[in-house]
Amino acid sequence: MNKKIILIAGTPAEHSIENVYNDGKRDFAARTYNYAIALLKANRNIAGDNDYKVEIADYPVDRRTEILEPSFVDSLLSKSPSAIGFSVYCWNQHIFLNTARYIKKIDKEVKIIAGGPSVTFNPEEILRKNKSIDLIVTGDGEETFSELLRNDFKCLSNIRGIAYRKQDRIFVNKPAEPTDINKILSPYLADGFRPDSDTIMIEPSRGCIYRCKFCSWSKGRRINQKRRQILSDELQWAYKNGYRNINFSDTSVNMTNEQLQVIVDSLKSSKVYDKLSLSVFMKYDKLDTKQLKMIDRLRFDEIIIGLESVNEMVLRECGKPPFDRMRFEGIVERLGRMGNKITISIITGLPKDSYNGIKNTVGYLEKLIDKFPDYINFVCSFWLAILPGTRFERERIRHRFSYLKKGTPYLTSSRYMNRKELMKVAEYVVEKTKTNNKIFCEEYYIEALENGL
User: Fold this and answer.
1) Percentage helix, strand, coil, to 5, in the chain?
2) 409 close to 403: Cβ distance less than 8 angstroms
3) The CATH number of the domain where 59 resides is what?
4) Which of 206, 297, 300, 319 sits a CA distance of 20 to 30 A from 422?
5) Do both 204 and 153 map to the same domain?
6) Residue 153 structural domain
7) Per-residue pLDDT tens over the stretch 35-88
8) Does 282 score more than 80 pLDDT?
């Protein structure tokens, strides 16, 4: 048997906000790549040595893609892999399921593995409905994937964190324990991974202490923090290899003082932080005097604050704290005076919101832009997606959520806003992007106006 595994990701080309900024502003969604498959490849031996060779391929997809190009798939099969794995997200799930069926028609012996958030929360259902999928890895995949290789895909009943098909039966094993992020090898440092992007993603931690209902990160309440030295080494590696833009891929770097201190220490010890353009997520309600002092001598080209709405009822329904206008504006001003730039995100379609409510949020942020024009990068409006594993998905009947069943599950109506009202919001937001150069929106707004919901 040819012990070769090919892992495939589907980069969401059109989900990036492909805006070109002439003034050098950062865009936190541009030029993305799949970090997960690089992690799996780098950590293929952490559970024990094995003879498998792992290749990765990152294939660009968009909402019009139905299946990976047959010529691309045929080129993979020509390498005679023993297994092909897919990194499955909501935007590429239908693409990879169609591709898996195509592969099985050509070669029934190739194992098809799936992993990622869109198969983690309902593996039994995915296997039952898709006979072309042989095995699903749930949750953190590094140790589980390595265990599969070490065991040569045998003794599956002993491997936690998988669901699999055996003849006509489906088995779902116990979940694996969360992987200690400090036991995971960095794909940059250990495996020579060099993404074709001008931006490097660095994962400082896993887990989140918050319970935002629209986000699947809230499944874990504990912060799994990467050590300072590893982060510092990754920053140095990025600089030495010609990368100048760094995205810290985390829900927030300041959920606790201890978490923020690790980030601050790693940046300072790297001795290259002042030569890099840094993008981070932060919670404004956590930025007190102590945290502001911790970052006083650092400069971030993008601090992303997920505001989502200024409506207290909306925020409460989302599981977020109420909006503190005075505190928020004070934080924006203080961060700006320290030399930082702020990006603010909001969401269309949240429960208990309305057309007038969204106008109120956008109107407030327009005034904020006028008040602090030098401190705010831009405001970006996202469309609510009912993502797998989120509390909103579990509450879909209560909220009467209707959403797209193929691709990203964007909201199409709810008990609070029907299709007509959502279209009215789309028109309003898109018009704002034309009249205010600091307001942007996800591409789905434009697609909804062109094709309907």
Assistant:
1) 40, 20, 40
2) yes
3) 3.40.50.280
4) 319
5) no
6) 4-172
7) 999 999 999 999 999 999 999 999 888 878 899 999 999 999 999 999 999 999
8) yes
